[in-house]
């Protein structure tokens, strides 16, 4: 499902892929990139209906858009996803690694400690999926290509109990992205990480005891909006960010201040 559009903007003529783009930060990033003129492909794992709704919204606004099903834990599916987008759209300029999963539990909790399948899945999606996408994108991105990965401020400060496994995966992609930035810089491709703080999404609803704890730890006293994270992603994807690579942009309401 793809439609040609003629939107203008700083990203006119560019093609972006946003993994996990059917909801939350991913959907907000897809909208923001399209608003700047990019053609946008999104990937999803479970809900085709949600993905189709985002595509329909982007298409109605005049953008070219398409959705692809791909499990970020499967390196072959990730490689095929990137190759399909580049083939269908004729190129790939921007990769936004947004897809991720979160399974919380204290390291001394018997059930959580024994649930190695959940731990392995987090590693496979949050780290393996990013690495697979970066490697596949590196084969098709040209001069001026952009890779932006959505991390978490928990990588720098695990300020709550029960987040060790998730924080470890987000810390790993910072190191990976810095290394990839070194590797790809000679080709004019930038690689950066956006680290959101507490953001109101399906994965992190702004209600409940944990939500109250997050607000208390945030100097601004509120959750961020997906659109606020998308603004940072769009900036790093644009032409004015051409000398920024290997960087980590915290969008966290002051959590790490």
UniProtKB/TrEMBL annotation:
Entries under Pfam families matching the protein: adh_short_C2
Record SMART domains: PKS_KR (SM00822)
Domain of life according to the entry: Bacteria
Signal peptide (from-to): none
Residue span(s) of domain Ketoreductase: 14-197
Family membership: Belongs to the short-chain dehydrogenases/reductases (SDR) family.
Stored PANTHER family: SHORT-CHAIN DEHYDROGENASE-RELATED, SHORT-CHAIN DEHYDROGENASES/REDUCTASES FAMILY MEMBER
Name of the protein in its database record: SDR family oxidoreductase
Organism: Streptomyces lunalinharesii
